[in-house]
Predict the 3D structure of the following.
Amino acid sequence: MSTPTKYDEVYQQFLATPEYKVAEIIDGTLITNSRPPSLQALAKSALLYELYEPFCFSKVGPRGWVILPEPELHLDRDILVPDIAGWRRERMPEIPDVVGVELPPDWICEVLSPSTVAMDRASKLPIYARHQVTHAWLIDPLAQTLEVFRLTSQHWLLLGTFRDDAKFRAEPFDASELELAMLWAR
Amino acid sequence: MSKPAKSDDVYQQFLATPEYKVAEIIQGRLITHPRPASPHAKAAYTLGGKLLPLSDSDEDPNGWVILPEPELHLAQDILVPDLAGWRRKRMPEMPHVAAFELAPDWICEVLSPSTAATDRADKLPIYARHQIMHAWLVDPLAKTLEVFRLTQQQWLLVDTHRDRARVRAEPFETLELDLSKLWTR
């Protein structure tokens, strides 16, 4: 058919990235990172654990959310892999059997590390905003902070920042009180 | 109606802090940290320098008073942002004082690993309570500038810039800032 576009080339490079790296296409550019280090991995798994029973599944059955770690989001020509993303069940009644999810999530969470923080704040957050992701959480395991944002007129409104061992309620999961301390309990 | 007194104990400790430490009173507690390391100092000093043209004239009604590390007395708290600015309309003449009770129109915090949590979680909300219209967070290690505008008591993230971006960022849209200068070694 037609000659491969620059996007096709980037996408081929994306597909060719080795398994031990995390690959994304951000603003049309292939970005690869090492897999997250241990403290970032801890924060991510602890938060998933805290959200699972209240919001995803209980013994009684599915709850209001689909929450997935490191889903590959295909947002137009970008491919973003947030640390965690969530979809309200009304928008995703059944989890599709796919490699790349095209439905933008209702909530994303990025766990920051020194090597990814600039990209997360300056490049990925604006892309999530463009795709109407309603809530964003930024977790910094080294500073031990959680920043909670809600999309408001195309911009991120900072609803609050929690730190250390705070117990907190934060949109969109404010129905349950959560414990920050677990995210850095080494 | 008299002003409520600051907690005397905490305030005495604040006054007794040695010169080589930075002291603040945040939510009633004394917080001290060491003077900043070089990337932090460089970013703050360079940014202050870039903003100088806005504060050169004391007759420009659209001008600013811009100061490094001013001591802000905001109700019961004493905060020392890395940079702060007052519009001439609100501060036609800079007073000769040790501390300011008039909240600035803009503050800038330069983040370091030991202060980022306090800056984001503790100081930003206090600045919001005192109606400071704009806040910039500069991270010299990540090489980012986050621009916040106060919107109905909350911080709206207007933009995030990084690395070598050339930016015009509110409230200083008249100035083009080459961000790379903040992190040249």
